[in-house]
Amino acid sequence: MIRTIKYEEKMSLDEIFPRSQFSYEDINEKVKNIIEDVKENGDKALFKYNEMFDNVIMTDLTVSSEEIEEAYSRIDNKFKETLKIAHDNIKKFHEKQVRNNFFVNENDGVILGQIINPIEKVGVYVPGGTASYPSTVLMNVIPAKIAGVNEIVLVTPPNKNGKIDDVILASAKIAGVDKIYKIGGAQSIAALSYGTETVPKVYKIVGPGNIYVAMAKKMVYGEVAIDMVAGPSEILIIADESANAANIAADLLSQAEHDKLASSVLVTTSEILTENVKVELEKQLKLLPREETARESINNNGRIIITKTLDEAINISNEIAPEHLEICIDDPFSVLSKIKNAGSIFLGKNTPEALGDYLAGPNHTLPTSGTAKFSSPLSVDDFIKKSSVIYYTKEALEKVKDNVINFAKNEGLDAHANSVSVRFEEQEEK
Fold first, then answer.
1. Fewest CB within a 10 Å sphere: which of 220, 314, 403, 404?
2. Listing from the earlier edge strand, what are the strands of the sheet with 121-125?
3. Does the annotation mark 324 as catalytic?
4. What is the mean pLDDT of each run of 10 residues along the chain (430 residues)?
């Protein structure tokens, strides 16, 4: 049963809502060994791990264009249409994020600016195993395409038949993926980071995965860029007495079914709603195909926190900084300005988190584990580089040379100072 807490002002949130804390030493050692193996042995290591972890013997890691087309043809037309609607919504939203080059004339003879270039090669990890995630394909690939990434490489674990789910391939076709490889886990992150005979080295890796994938991304950071180290999925719901208990319970369970480590939190001013949500949780849990996963998540990581005021609820939410935040009150816009830390904000009683997962348009790759205090959802910005541009004429440089020289000498960097003064030595001799 979900744990209920009546919040008091001096309570520590770390105590009433401890995020999962585990020692990853054993996992880190395994991941490190996998990465080193792939670096040294390339494709040979990848085939070995496909057999070891995915129970499939393979001789070719590449998904052919024929496989993609065949998969696309097998998808029913209704789901194709749904994928296209989602694609268009995601594309429309992310196009608003595009940055432009700019140049400014500060003074006569001075031009300053910034130019935008896409990251040239990007790897996208799409989880497999217990579920299939075409939404992850769309959310990670579309902003990369909008940014202008030249080569998008997708990796995802094969099934027991050595195939990739049709819905993954169909969404990859719609999104515009360039290459697809049948590899998953830490080994796929290593392959993208260092390259193998088959898999090209990329410059950045994005996409969610299990703890092995997350730790592998963390280990290769610096060799390549990564989007984030994602933790278990999270939802926090702020609700008052006007909220519908069945809806709240359903939304809490939408995250709980992801993972036994997922967390689902309700912060409410209503004790009546609390009791009704408990009843609904039990009722709905019994109907879920993934009941075991969801129940363990709710029992271990679920919380209902009862507060005296809505402001108190908002303060708790800001401190927790959830991945997904739903605000289920009559006028959610009235409190929007008070929300400081959240990955994605869902306003109103008719905006379930699942809407953001699939169709609305904003990205569903979000900061977890409280990192929304300092990081943002995946965006077009994650797939670009910004370079500054500086131009001075000699006359413009002369106006500031003494200041630059003075600065350099105060830092004890004489060569810096000389790089400016040398340009005027001939002039000074005259």
1. 403
2. 179-182, 151-156, 121-125, 204-206, 225-226
3. yes
4. 89 77 77 98 98 94 97 97 98 97 90 97 90 93 98 96 95 98 98 98 96 95 95 95 98 94 96 98 97 96 96 96 97 98 98 97 96 97 98 96 98 98 77
CB 126 within 8 A of CB 390: no
**From the CA atom positions of the chain, what is the Rg in Å?**
26
Task: Locate the DSSP E strands across 308-370.
Answer: 324-328, 344-347
The upper half-sphere exposure of residue 159, i.e. CA atoms within 13 Å in the direction of its Cβ, equals 10
Tokens representing residue 291 in the block: 């009941």
Lookup: tokens for 154: 């997708």
pTM of whole model > 0.90? yes
Encoded tokens for 19? 């995020």
Residues 6 or more apart from 62 whose CB is under 8 A from it?
A: 179, 180, 181, 182, 198
Q: Angle of helix 134-147 relative to helix 166-175, nearest 10 degrees?
A: 20
Helices (H), ranges, 221-309:
245-256, 271-285, 291-301
| Structure-block tokens of residue 254 | 């939408």
Q: How far apart are CA 302 and CA 233, in angstroms?
A: 12
**Candidate list 323, 326, 353, 364, residue with the active-site label:** 323
Nearest to 259 by CA among 298, 303, 285: 298
| Separation of alpha carbons 331 and 309, rounded Å | 15
Which amino acid is residue 158, in one-letter code?
P
Structure tokens at 48: 């070995």
Pairing of strands 225-226, 179-182: unpaired
Instruction: Of 256, 300, 311, give the one whose Cα is nearest residue 280.
Output: 256
pLDDT in tens, 93-137: 999 999 999 999 877 899 999 999 999 999 999 998 667 899 999
Which is the catalytic residue, given 94, 324, 326, 353? 324
- What CA–CA distances, in Å, run from 122 to 48, 141, 172? 25, 9, 14
CA distances to 215, 334, 372 from 321, in Å: 22, 19, 5
